[in-house]
Amino acid sequence: MTTVVKTVEAVNESNLRARKKNINTPYTIEEVAKHNTENDLWIIINNKVYDVTKWIPYHPGGNLPILNLGGHDVTDAFRGFHPDWAFKKLSAFQVGILTGYEPNQVVKDYRALDEKLRREGYYKTHYMFYAKLYLWLSFLFCLSMYLTIYTTELKWQMLGALVLGMFWQQLAFVGHDTGHISISHNRDIDGWIGSTVGNFFGGVSLAWWKRTHNVHHVVPNSVQHDPDIQHLPIFAVTDKVIPDGVFSNYHKKQMTFDSFAKFMVSNQHIFYYPVMAVARFNLYLQSILLLFSNVDVQCRKAEIVSVGLFWCWYIKVLGFLPSTSAMIAYVLISHVVAGLVHVQICLSHFPMETYDGVPYNSDDECYCITQLKTTLNVDCPEWLDWFHGGLQFQVEHHLFPRLPRHNLRHARKLVKELCKKHNLPYYEYGFVEANRLLLLTLKNAAEVAKKAKEVKFSLKNSIIGDLLYARG
């Protein structure tokens, strides 16, 4: 039995002893909405009301996803991210039932589609797909090491750097799969793959990625809550953060629009690709800051060891290069190529609608519609699916996060039918057009930034201060 299950049972026993309210007490959705703080947090799942206040510190996905959805109907978010056994552990948290509320037809049909996908085996992993993927990744890594270590001509070693960058880009998709527990569907197994194998070969902490990504999925493109669009002072995905900045509920700090931010944001459509080319260095830093922070990190020791071993082998490989300039070129080439994955990640959300606060406040902002409004697909032929690693089907992925990536193309047809039936938005563009829309979004915000008045620059509250004070 896993640690998580044991912890759930301990909290359940505590709740059973402490609970005094009748579990059949009726509550309206307005009454539940009042219980939305860290000290008093209720949620609704399948028309049952649960008090999960005591569970917040133990939630395997971190406390922020729960805190962001306090007082809401989280049926679809819960179903999307949790295995079936999690539903069985809910009973001890129940404090009542929901009354006077009926989901609209969009929600009903979306849930029916999820049931259809489960019933017809879309959630089952085809392990032959991952066997082939293992061979592909092994080929890329071994080829890069051979070209770097066993050849003496600089041109072949630089080709080795290019192949290594391609390996990292492809490896990131596997990390994404393990983070969503969509390979083995066992949290411990997928977590082990990501925290050891993924960290060892990639150097980026799975724990750091999951901490941000879990929040992103439940509040996609929320100006205050989604860390994936909070990039001041480098980028402003929306002009809503100009000139007042934004208080990040993820980072727990005010992100200011100072003179440095004004310069960067005013030119962000020009800086975008160069920044993406070196963005991986920031991920290394964020991983180290998290692993050595006082934040609760699962498998911390394994994460630290595997990330540390990454730097051991990578620095050793650099030692085979003939000069310092060759090392610098090798590092830059490998990271520029790996930066493709950052472009791919941003494509699906940067050009899309943003909003203030948290979603799911009305029928028009239900889980399904929120994901559709804030996400786009990248249209590509099936033979090119390997290049995008499943990220091209972000709409389907956001609607069904635990669906194995090799089944997303098949689910796409069914999702389009759902959207057509209810006249719902479904955004899908080619790779070039999606990049154009992203740059247009950045340019529009840049035009606003040029005319805005910035606040006085403060070293302590700047990105430089974050580095000096070791803040993530």
Q: What descriptors fit this protein?
A:
single chain; 472 residues; alpha/beta; Flavocytochrome B2, Chain A, domain 1; 21 helices; globular; disordered C terminus; Cytochrome b5 heme-binding domain-containing protein
Q: What portion of the residues fall into strands of 2 or more residues?
A: 5-15%
Q: Give the structural class.
A: alpha/beta
Total domain count: 2
Overall form: globular
Kindly report the average pLDDT value: 90
Low-confidence stretches: 467-472
> Whole-number radius of gyration?
23 Å
What is the N-to-C succession of helices and strands?
HEHEEEHHHEHHHHHEEHHHHHHEHHHEHH
Q: How far from one another are the termini?
A: 33 Å
Q: Portion of residues in helices?
A: 55-70%
Strand order of the largest sheet: 1-5-4-3-2
Main pleated-sheet profile: 5 strands, mixed
Give the count of helical stretches: 21
Number of strands: 9
Quick take:
This protein has helices at about 5-20, 30-35, 65-70, 75-80, 85-90, 105-120, 125-150, 155-180, 185-200, 205-220, 260-265, 270-290, 300-320, 325-340, 340-345, 365-375, 385-390, 395-400, 410-420, 430-450, 465-470, and strands at about 25, 35, 40-45, 50, 95-100, 245-250, 255, 375-380, 425-430.
What does this structure look like?
GO terms for molecular function: metal ion binding; oxidoreductase activity, acting on paired donors, with oxidation of a pair of donors resulting in the reduction of molecular oxygen to two molecules of water. With 472 residues, the protein is an alpha/beta fold. The chain folds into two domains: 1-102, Flavocytochrome B2, Chain A, domain 1 (Roll), CATH 3.10.120.10; 127-362 and 438-469, no CATH class. 56% of the residues lie in helices and 7% in strands. It is built from 21 helices and nine strands. It has helices spanning 3-18, 29-33, 63-68, 75-81, 84-88, 105-119, 127-149, 154-179, 187-202, 206-218, 259-266, 268-291, 300-318, 324-338, 340-347, 367-373, 385-388, 394-399, 408-422, 431-451, 463-468, and strands at 26-27, 36-37, 40-45, 48-51, 94-98, 246-248, 253-255, 376-379, 427-430. β6 (246-248) and β7 (253-255) form a beta hairpin. α8 (154-179) runs parallel beside α14. The longest helix is centred in the middle third of the chain and has 26 residues, at 154-179.
